[in-house]
Amino acid sequence: MKKADIFEFYRRLAELNPSPETELESVNIYTLLVAVVLSAQSTDAGVNKATRALFATVRDPQAMVELGEAGLKSHIKTIGLFNTKARNVIALSHLLIDKFGGEVPTDRDALETLPGVGRKTANVVLNVALGAETFPVDTHVFRVANRTGLAKGKTVMAVETILERQTPQPFRTHAHHWLILHGRYTCKARTPECWRCPVIDLCAFRPKSLPPAKIPASIR
DNA sequence: ATCCCGAGGG
DNA sequence: CCCTCTGGAT
């Protein structure tokens, strides 16, 4: 996508939602980390439903370890991949206590040493908790970037590299959330709702599937 | 049947 | 690169 169009793309999403935030609920950086780990291949709404009860009493690694894997599983049974996630969250909590003084590390390499934490999760924690200019590429960002032509890449890493390089300064901290919210509510996976898309004229997908709207002269 | 703020292992 | 883990919503 052309440089001027990239700027205009973000400018419009920013105008509609000046300060976008994550829809994952958390009470501190530790619970944020846990929520993001739990969110893999699951909806934010589904994760929130489970974590509301969990985070009411468990808000730090020590409490999580005391709850135990079986106890955690009973809280997250309704979330996909819950066996692996429960194991990872308990292991990750032990590691935070043993190697990081009970605190969540704030650099990407350290975060990625935690079980269940990959590049995308680390990028989300850094962006949401610290306001870092990271570009987590999830299913929505990957789809929106490729479909619209904003950043075409065959892998999530390729897309992240392009976003990191091309995103204009005023939009760098929130770009991730604008793309994800646009993907979740408008540029949906199965049936994108192009009729209410604010950037339809900048989109590479629109011309092929939906012809440009022709408004009859009679109603103009 | 497809998708949801993926990661780890082969 | 591929596959598996997994329940809930649509």
UniProtKB/TrEMBL annotation:
PROSITE patterns: ENDONUCLEASE_III_2. PANTHER family: A/G-SPECIFIC ADENINE GLYCOSYLASE/ENDONUCLEASE III, ENDONUCLEASE III. Its cofactor is [4Fe-4S] cluster. DNA repair enzyme that has both DNA N-glycosylase activity and AP-lyase activity. The DNA N-glycosylase activity releases various damaged pyrimidines from DNA by cleaving the N-glycosidic bond, leaving an AP (apurinic/apyrimidinic) site. The AP-lyase activity cleaves the phosphodiester bond 3' to the AP site by a beta-elimination, leaving a 3'-terminal unsaturated sugar and a product with a terminal 5'-phosphate. Pfam families: EndIII_4Fe-2S, HHH, HhH-GPD. The keyword Plastid does not apply. One of its GO terms (biological process) is base-excision repair, AP site formation. Binds 1 [4Fe-4S] cluster. It is an enzyme of class 4 (lyase). GO terms for molecular function: 4 iron, 4 sulfur cluster binding; class I DNA-(apurinic or apyrimidinic site) endonuclease activity; DNA binding; DNA N-glycosylase activity; metal ion binding. Residues 38-185 form the HhH-GPD domain. This is Endonuclease III. NCBIfam families: nth. The lineage of its organism: Bacteria, Pseudomonadati, Pseudomonadota, Alphaproteobacteria, Sphingomonadales. Keywords: 4Fe-4S, DNA damage, DNA repair, DNA-binding, Endonuclease, Glycosidase, Hydrolase, Iron, Iron-sulfur, Lyase, Metal-binding, Nuclease, Plasmid. [4Fe-4S] cluster binds at C187, C194, C197, C203. Belongs to the Nth/MutY family. The keyword Hydrolase applies. Its EC number is 4.2.99.18. It catalyses: 2'-deoxyribonucleotide-(2'-deoxyribose 5'-phosphate)-2'-deoxyribonucleotide-DNA = a 3'-end 2'-deoxyribonucleotide-(2,3-dehydro-2,3-deoxyribose 5'-phosphate)-DNA + a 5'-end 5'-phospho-2'-deoxyribonucleoside-DNA + H(+). InterPro entries: DNA_glycosylase, Endonuclease-III-like_CS2, Endonuclease3_FeS-loop_motif, HhH-GPD_domain, HhH_base_excis_C, HhH_motif, Nth.
